[in-house]
Specification:
single chain, mainly alpha, DNA polymerase, domain 1, developmental protein, transcription regulation, nucleus, DNA-binding, DNA binding
Length: 196
């Protein structure tokens, strides 16, 4: 005599392997996500090494600017000082002793990644030090000073506007009825359809 559940195995005894899931390897993060994580860890390390050590919750826009200035020592962009004979030259003919700094574009991208990382790690958007007005002003000043020093104007990208569509208004009362064609009633002439 066979029991009703003889085809089933007992999960308590362990002879049922259970549902089989094919585990896929964890998805590799995008280049942006990897860079954002590295930047975030670098900033946290900076706060840890700060004298005195600084908690993230007490971090302000001033600390972010201090961090950006600290990063200048690792920069690779030659920024001429006002007294340099090559100030304002894009392609100086010979080397000079002007400092290397972080390029404005690199700092701007870094702040964007850190702003996102701050909120992803539990920070409130209204207290985000990377979104502080002082940081935006600092970045604008860096952009303008580097543009002058390197002779490279930074211009905002102009948005392409969609082509304008010209509408033609047809006046039915002034349509041609002179040729007697009933199909031509209300149809504009070519001259009427083209705007002046």
């Amino acid at each position: 005599m066979e029991s009703a559940d003889s085809g089933r195995s007992d999960p308590v005894k362990g002879d049922d392997p259970g549902p089989s899931f094919v585990s896929s390897p964890p998805a590799t993060p995008s280049r942006y996500e990897s860079q954002k994580r590295r930047d975030w860890n670098t900033f946290l390390q900076y706060l840890k090494n700060h004298k005195p050590p600084l908690a993230l919750s007490r971090c302000s826009g001033a600390h972010v600017i201090e961090f950006l200035k600290y990063l200048d020592q690792f920069g690779k962009t030659k920024v001429h000082v006002a007294a340099c004979p090559y100030f304002g030259h894009q392609q100086p003919p010979s080397p000079c002793s002007c400092p290397l700094k972080q390029a404005w574009g690199s700092l701007d991208a870094l702040i964007g990644r850190l702003r996102a990382a701050y909120e992803e790690n539990g920070g409130r958007p209204d207290s985000n030090p990377f979104a502080a007005r002082a940081v935006r002003i600092y970045l604008r000043e860096v952009r303008e000073s580097q543009a002058k020093a390197r002779g490279i104007p930074y211009e905002k990208k102009k948005r392409k506007r969609p082509p304008t569509v010209t509408t033609v208004r047809v006046d039915v009362a002034s349509s041609r009825q002179s040729d007697g064609d009933p199909c031509n009633v209300g149809a504009p002439s070519v001259a009427e359809a083209v705007p002046p």
